[in-house]
Design brief:
Elements: E1 9-13, H1 17-28, E2 32-36, H2 40-47, E3 52-53, H3 57-61, E4 66-69, H4 74-82, E5 96-99, H5 105-117, E6 121-124, E7 127-128, H6 130-135, E8 139-144, H7 147-158, E9 161-168, H8 172-200, H9 205-213, H10 220-224, H11 226-231, H12 240-256, H13 262-276, H14 288-295
Parallel strand pairs: 1-2, 1-4, 2-3, 4-5, 5-6, 8-9
Antiparallel strand pairs: 7-8
Helix pairs in contact: 8-12, 8-13, 8-14, 12-13
Bound molecules: nicotinamide-adenine-dinucleotide (NAD).
Amino acid sequence: MGRNDQLGTVGFIGLGTMGREMALNLLKAGYRVCVYDVVEAAIADLVGHGAEPASSPADAGRDADIAIAMLPDTPEVEDVVYGKDGLLTSPPRGRLFVDMSTISPVASRRIHADLANVGVAAIDAPVSGGPVGAKNAALSIMAGGEADAFARAEPFFRAMGTTITHVGAAGAGQTVKLCNQLICGINIQAICEALALGRASGIDLEQLRNVLLGGSAASWMLDRLGPAMIAGDTAAGFRIDLMLKDLRLVQEQALSLSVPLPATALVTNQYVEARAHGEGTNGNQALFKVYDRMTNQAAT
Ligand code: NAD
């Protein structure tokens, strides 16, 4: 679809693994998209696909109906909101900010409140589905904030995702995402354990995966990440460093509410072990390397 200025303008901030694909899908849907990233090459790449370059978060939002951020962690989102040339001092024209990064729910609620004080509505809308979901505009988007702000953001979400749910007030999107992440982490750990036991027992791991996918042990992780785990492929998709960031946020929230999460604590420590071996930039499926070490076996 060609660009349709009537459709609206998006200021998109953060053009990494996920943000690049999401911004491309907004362009494909016909939106005008102004892009900003601290990496200039990331901006140039998107400009090559029809986006317009911005020199700061404020510049990206200047003419935008909505400013969207897709950044690594809480400090980067705070930088984009509170920093010099940030959205607090220079709000987007449409006075709507959507943070699709996974960050602290506490920080997210603070950002909502501070932006509300200057007349900007905010939505926290983290995503699940990985780089493939981002590329295929098939993300699951979990949104927190006021209903009218969600309604304004929803058409933009439709260009990036398929399961789009308003899950509650400010910060609720982040909390739902943290629930998602603890399941992902523990599920990867369960797959590592099944593969380690199968390998030590001389079972064909491809066949094991196929059998498991046909029964009650089937999962998104086994389906999408299982092949890389069996092949010993550590290539990044969702980095171990980012998974550790999410598991830390899960545990901060759980401790603040006195909710014991023993399985999350265990898998978090295994990811810490992986990072201590210099593996933080590997994809999170590469938790299998911890199991390689524990079983003293190289990946097959
Ligand atoms: P990434 O590190 O690949 O991309 C982040 C981008 O933000 C980079 O291009 C970086 O240069 C840019 N950036 C950093 N600081 C900035 C700043 N101050 N101003 C402007 N740009 C800045 O990360 P990603 O994998 O795209 O993940 C983004 C978010 O989405 C994270 O919160 C992550 O947890 C979440 N997420 C990732 C995946 C995944 O599979 N990669 C899946 C779901 C959710």
